Amino acid sequence: METKVTREQALALLKKYNQEPFHIQHALTVEAVMRWYAKELGYGDEDFWGLCGLLHDVDYEKYPEEHCKKAPELLKEIDAEDALVHAVCSHGYGICSDAKPEHEMEKVLFAADELTGLIGAAARMRPSKSCTDMELSSLKKKFKDKRFAAGCSRDIIRTGAEQLGWDLDKLLDMTLQAMKASEADIEEQMK
User: Fold this and answer.
1) Domain 7-190, what architecture?
2) Could you report the per-residue pLDDT of 52-62, keeping only the tens digit for each?
3) How many CB atoms lie within 10 A of CB 145?
């Protein structure tokens, strides 16, 4: 999908409503993961997929009680297309939004958003503080431990895999690969 929104506009909007480094880093991570998935799945629409990832939580820091409800208003500031607005809102389906993920990109965003948080938490617990040396088996153990990163909903991750028609291992493995591939670039952007 072609988009008239530039990454510069999207990043400026994100930073206008999000100042916490954790939220900025999460947005950059989900952007990178979405770009990786677009390429890996053969869509070649990396810019659009990336923008959806970058902006998915645009309203979260300032308007947590209106998450996914305030986003359309904020996205109007950069004249975002309906498809971009729907994708952003659909990542909160069943939690804070009635917009259902329809396209594969929206389903990936729904699934990967929550999972990047779990992988990031697991990485911070490692001696390397990195996911680049993390094995899938290690991630699966963290996933099964309900006390670990308890704020990351395993149900959302499972539902995301089901919506995609993937088994859980495929989603875990691919998202871990995507985060490994982008970790250094995100660290550089956060400096």
Assistant:
1) Orthogonal Bundle (1.10)
2) 999 999 999 99
3) 12
